[in-house]
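Try it yourself: sequence plus hypoxanthine, in.
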Amino acid sequence: MDYDDFKQMSDYIKSKINDEPEVAIILGSGLSGLAEEVKNPMKISYEKVPNMPKVTVEGHKGEFIFCDIEGKKVLLMSGRFHLYEGHKPDVLRILPYVSKLLGAKIFIATNAAGGVNLSFKPGDLMVIKDHINYSFSNPMMGENIPKMGDRFFDMSMAYSKRLIDILRQSGKENDIALKEGVYLMYSGPNYETPSEIKAFRILGADAVGMSTVPEVLAARHCGLEICGISCITNMAAGILEKPLNHEEVIQTSNMVKDKFVELMKAFIKKL
Ligand code: HPA
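Structure, out:
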């Protein structure tokens, strides 16, 4: 994908919303509840947007929702692209790049993840402090687009300390306990083996999932201020004596919905 492809997408969306979002949020599996709570949503199905691939995962709708949350203009993205769907890696630049081209300054990635840290429980929310790219892929491979960012870019402070502090405060003020940790991305589509999870724990991972890292790389490339939140939907493979499945992931994230919506609203209000 080249600059014109991304520009065409954002131009199409701009022609529909006629306004600039300040904050862009990708809603992970089962976390689209935030989209149901907002006032005056203006929805644009991904299908209508030129150059946009299809969203294939259950629990992911595939729409941009431009709306007001706590007085801020927000672009929600309900549905994302995953490497395991077979997309070329650069497709995973779409949501951050389009957010940037629409004028957003802050980029929030949310996801469902397995708990690798043994002190976590299903239903916990984890603020992502850093990530490990264990996907063996990178959306930034290929020709660089200088209009979006530099060929070589820094990842030493990818997750904004400022935003992490605001998340901590929002949690405290609303009695929402927050974990903090490192998110490791595995390509999927299978859940990991127990041995992989043991290895990831040794590597320093607290949570594991199949998304977010490519989007954060592209968001960092184009200079967005980033934060990430994982909903721990299950303990990762081998911790409990039971197999993992997508229904459990969706069920737990639905249970956490109210807490997640409250946290996001409190956070956005403070931005
Ligand atoms: N592993 C990978 N991805 C996930 C998991 C998991 O245990 N839970 C939710 N997404």
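One thing you can check immediately is this: The helical segments are 3-17, 33-37, 94-102, 161-173, 194-203, 213-221, 246-270.
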